[in-house]
Structure formats: C-alpha cells, structure tokens
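Pasting as-is:
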Amino acid sequence: MGASADNPFDGVWDAFADAGLLDQAWVEQAGGDPLPVMVDLRTPDELEFDSRVTVSRPTIEYRLADAPDLDVGTTLTVRGVRYRVRNPPRAQDDGVHMIADLEVIR
C-alpha cells in the first residue's frame, strides 16, 4: 500500500493509516480470502420522516487501486460490523479515491 510514482498523494493516505485515522476493512471476495483495505468510515446520522427518525448513512472513502472491484452488493466488515455496498461507488475529484454508500447487514 505504499505511495506510487503515479500519485504522490498516496503517501498522505498511508500516513493517515499509520496515524490510526483510517480503519481496516475486510472485503469479501468470491472464492478467496477477504481483501484488507484501509478505509475512512463515516457514519453520520440524518433525520428523516419529518425529523422523527434518526438514520445512519454509512459511507467509506478508499483508494480505487486498493479495491478496484468494489461494487454494488459487495460485502465488507469494518470495526466488526458487516456492510453491503448499496450504490455504485463514485469517484472523488482526484479520481484516485472513491466513495461507497453502505448499508448494515442485520
């Protein structure tokens, strides 16, 4: 997961990971061992139903190079919680990092 010659900002992502600012995710792969990927997990709460219900809309930010096959339906575990990718991941402005919307698997 080191910095690449193509993107010098990879070193910043690695520094965030080294400082404990990112979480280890385990991405399930068909017929293989889970893939370890460093992610920035966000679990903001939002009010819905006329502000009567608080819901969590978890997302992760990750480097595209670390999980290029992450797609709708992919299952992953972060902080002991299992999630499923619920929408197609979308590129950040830099094209190197992606955002994926998640849903908790109950």
